[in-house]
């Protein structure tokens, strides 16, 4: 029984190493050393399908009429956590990407939307991250999942995020793909201080069932 437990522990450790690794493995520019890595299942000239394994994040939620204001408030709250506002007083390395889950279930234009921002925890903190001091900050888990991804440059704003989200969903519906339409994810890989021509952003939509890539190139 002890040997079995040890084997399972080793396998879990290997899985953690596989999903969070050196950012140099990504094909696009980023400024951190550790990134959430993925497998490309297939791609078209409009989007790609990626497989992400389970991961642990530090997360906060903000309600606002403006994505830009919500992201600013949420980012600073999470930045305080990695700067030492946790039970260990420990500084934690910044990683990529920063992910914002955006609720699509707003019914009226005057209603605030829910924005949930997450920082990926580095691999050394995946098993046992420090507890946040701020009660608006919490540790969350994402399961393994497939996502449809559209990439773009420049600044991520409420307008650019909405534009690329609508374009991605339009292409997915045209290709007959099934996806979760009650939310999407705005994803950034750069510091707020990085100039617009060096920025890489993405929109993610969670795939349902078998992913679809019409006129696609299958990846090994």
From TrEMBL:
Pfam families, A to Z: SOUL (PF04832)
Q: Where in the cell is it found?
A: Cytoplasm
Gene3D superfamilies the UniProt entry points to: Regulatory factor, effector binding domain (3.20.80.10)
Which keywords has UniProt assigned to this entry? Cytoplasm, Signal
Q: By its UniProt entry, which SUPFAM superfamilies does this protein fall under?
A: Probable bacterial effector-binding domain
Task: Give the protein's biological function.
Answer: May bind free porphyrinogens that may be present in the cell and thus facilitate removal of these potentially toxic compound. Binds with a high affinity to one molecule of heme or porphyrins. It binds metalloporphyrins, free porphyrins and N-methylprotoporphyrin with similar affinities.
User: What protein is this chain from?
Assistant: Heme-binding protein 1
Q: List the source organism.
A: Hippocampus comes
- Lineage, opening ranks: Eukaryota, Metazoa, Chordata, Craniata, Vertebrata
